[in-house]
Specification:
single chain, mainly alpha, 30s Ribosomal Protein S14, Chain N, two-stranded antiparallel ribbon, 5% strand, elongated
Length: 76
């Protein structure tokens, strides 16, 4: 399961609290102190293609949509 969707299984495990606790223990995402998983896009939540410069913290796909509104010009 992906980072944000491990909680979807809770619906089935609500009737079985012991199995739910074991599921949470082994399947929740690790707490991270470094790496690219910490830097997520503020707009959509992607972790790859992240633009950190100027404090933007958005992915390249969202940047293309918002660039003119942010004051960037397209050259060429």
């Amino acid at each position: 399961m992906s980072y944000s969707h491990y909680a979807k299984a809770f619906k089935q495990l609500d009737a079985k609290p012991i199995k739910k606790a074991k599921f949470i223990k082994f399947n929740q995402p690790k707490k991270r102190s470094c790496g690219f998983s910490l830097r997520r896009c503020k707009n959509c939540g992607r972790v790859r293609g992240h633009i950190n410069k100027y404090g933007l913290h958005i992915c390249r796909q969202c940047f293309r949509e918002m660039a003119l509104g942010l004051g960037f010009k397209k050259y060429g």
